[in-house]
Design goal:
alpha+beta
Length: 125
């Protein structure tokens, strides 16, 4: 009988223990938290990039509008866009060489701060 008892005592176990399952769940949870954090970071970056692209597009449109007015009508000014919080201001300087130099400044709210960009351009009179 002692021989039979020894063979059952040394038999191989099958399946997973509770500790192994808990460790696996912790590892999966840490991985999922990492993925969620990365997704949130990418989302914030995409929103910030969209706002910057909008400000850049508005600057290009404003510069084209000023050029279409011609040197005689192009003047300094500013504009606010309530929906996006974009604030634009521009300064037109006439040179003696028949060139209008324009400096366009845009600022917009971003996550936790206000971002801004300045574009300088010129057009012939």
């Amino acid at each position: 009988m002692s021989r039979m008892h020894r063979t059952t005592r040394h038999s191989r176990r099958t399946g997973l223990t509770l500790v192994e399952v808990m460790v696996a769940l912790v590892l999966v949870a840490v991985g999922l938290l990492g993925i969620a954090g990365t997704s949130a970071l990418l989302f914030r970056a995409a929103v910030a990039q969209r706002a910057e692209r909008h400000a850049t597009r508005q600057a290009a449109l404003r510069l084209a509008w000023l050029a279409s007015l011609g040197c005689a009508a192009a003047r300094d000014g500013s504009a606010d866009e309530a929906a996006t919080g974009l604030h634009e201001s521009w300064h037109v300087a006439m040179s003696t060489a028949g060139v209008a130099e324009v400096e366009h400044h845009a600022s917009w709210p971003s996550v936790g701060a206000t971002r801004s960009a300045t574009v300088r351009s010129a057009f012939l009179c």
